[in-house]
Amino acid sequence: MLQQILASLGWVSTIMLLSLSTGSIAQDMSAMKNMASMPNMQKVNENNTNTNAAMSMDHSHMPIEIPEEIATPALSLSIYQDTVSGYNLELSIERYSLIPPPADLTTMEELMVPTINKNSGFVEGHAHLYVNGEKIQRIYGNYIHLPATLFKPGINQLTVSINNHGHMYWTFEKRQILATLFINPSSESLITYQFESFPVGL
User: Fold this and answer.
1) SS3 at position 3
2) pLDDT: is 38 or 133 the higher one?
3) Contacts of 22 (CB under 8 A, 6+ apart)
4) Which spans in the chain are helix H?
5) Cα Rg for the chain, rounded, in angstroms?
6) Which of 61, 101, 107, 127 is the most buried (most CB within 10 A)?
7) Is residue 16 domain-resident?
8) Stretch 56-81: mean pLDDT, rounded?
9) Residue 184: which CATH number?
10) Across-strand partners of 123?
11) pLDDT tens, residue by residue, 124-169
12) What tens digit of pLDDT does each residue of 97-122 get?
């Protein structure tokens, strides 16, 4: 049923290639149709000092593994209609420090390696929000307002991944840590399907 829905929407379902018996999920989000493409490298500044063009690349299609000695993060999503307009999305997160990148991380080498939060002892980073396969924005907190204009009539897909400061997506045993909701704004039941690779509470 899920595959039929995805096919009818014209999506390549790499992100949601689920085995309903095992809950497995494909690792590489980059194959999904309409996924935001990698932007061009930014132009080196006029002084040519301390600037690396690679810093502007989108590494959100590249995996980074949770270190063996660090607890595995968990991520779950919930959504409800806002009283005024649109919807409110809540990220429930365990064993993960959801923060903006520290100002002292200035080199590509620092951004491309796992960063452990000194206070929590967990890996740290931000999250990425995708709506219908398009990357919308970074997320630095547990709540985000989603305007109704983000959604089309019928079924829509919301996916949140957690990413390190270099935008690489976190994995555990090569499984990406993400959560996905399928919603239908015109349906009595807003959420029609949901999937969480590492749900909160388990």
Assistant:
1) helix
2) 133
3) none
4) 2-8, 108-111
5) 17
6) 127
7) no
8) 89
9) 2.60.40
10) 116
11) 999 999 999 999 999 999 999 999 999 999 999 999 999 999 999 9
12) 999 999 998 898 899 999 999 999 99
- The answer to the question of residue 145 being in a domain is yes
* DSSP-derived secondary structure letter, 24: B
Residue with tokens 């290639």: 17
**CB proximity list for 88: less than 8 A, separation 6 or greater:** 79, 80, 81, 82, 143, 144, 145, 146
The candidate with the shortest Cα–Cα distance to 163, out of 139, 189, 144, is 139
Q: Write down the pLDDT at residue 37.
A: 34
Please indicate, yes or no, if residue 24 is contained in any of the structural domains.
no
User: Dihedral of CA 50/54/56/58: which sign?
Assistant: negative
| Residue with tokens 């829509």, as numbered in its chain | 156
Number of domains in the chain: 1
Is 179:16 a contact under the CB 8 Å cutoff? Answer: no
Name the residue with tokens 């790499």: 14
Q: How many Cβ atoms from other residues are within 10 Å of residue 35's Cβ?
A: 20
Q: 83 lies in which domain range?
A: 57-196
Tokens representing residue 14 in the block:
């790499």
Q: With pLDDT > 70 as the criterion, what percentage of the chain qualifies?
A: 70
pTM of the model: 0.73
In a domain, residue 176? The reply is yes
Look at residue 172 and tell me whether its pLDDT is greater than 90: yes
Q: Is the separation of the CB atoms in 118 and 148 below 8 Å?
A: no
